[in-house]
């Protein structure tokens, strides 16, 4: 999934990887660094998605760190497992493209895959909304 941002790759990457600020753009999600500096391979993150007490914890380890263009994570939780990567690339002075992709191992076998058929479109809409919010936040606030 890809969106355009009215901000440089450097600016978008700075907002994207300011983990506590995820609540400002990622729909119903808070994030924090749980180990390391949050800015290097091996750092660990935890993100809670949902409305407390309902929701789930997504734990991650940063596996690739190439500012201001790439950050990748390995999802290590009980529910969410797999990989995720953000690519940010300058397209013109003061503009960039943000791409987000995930490759997740769905829980609960065939039941999980069947549930994803139903939940997938909603999840995709929420993720697209989050990316648009990231692009807007990057272009409008320090």
| Biggest sheet statistics | 7 strands, antiparallel
Provide a count of the helices. Answer: 3
Count of extended strands: 7
Contiguous low-pLDDT stretches (5 residues minimum) are none
What spatial form do the alpha-carbon principal axes imply? globular
Strand order of the largest sheet: 1-7-6-5-4-3-2
Name the CATH architecture.
2-Layer Sandwich
Structural class determined from secondary elements: alpha+beta
Protein name: Polyketide cyclase
Pfam family, one: Polyketide_cyc2
Organism: Sinosporangium siamense
Can you characterise this structure?
The chain has a single domain, classed as Alpha-D-Glucose-1,6-Bisphosphate, Chain A, domain 4 (2-Layer Sandwich). It has 3 helices and 7 strands. It has a 7-stranded antiparallel sheet with strand order 1-7-6-5-4-3-2. A hairpin with a 2-residue loop joins strand 6 and strand 7. Helix 1 packs across helix 3. It is globular.
Concise description?
The chain has helices at 9-16, 22-25, 109-140, and strands at residues 2-5, 29-35, 44-51, 54-66, 70-76, 81-92, 95-105.
Topology:
Elements: E1 2-5, H1 9-16, H2 22-25, E2 29-35, E3 44-51, E4 54-66, E5 70-76, E6 81-92, E7 95-105, H3 109-140
Antiparallel strand pairs: 1-7, 2-3, 3-4, 4-5, 5-6, 6-7
Helix pairs in contact: 1-3
InterPro entries: Polyketide_cyclase/dehydratase, START-like_dom_sf
Organism: Sinosporangium siamense
Protein name: Polyketide cyclase
Relevant terms:
Alpha-D-Glucose-1,6-Bisphosphate, Chain A, domain 4, seven-stranded antiparallel sheet, globular, alpha+beta, 142 residues, 31% helix, single chain
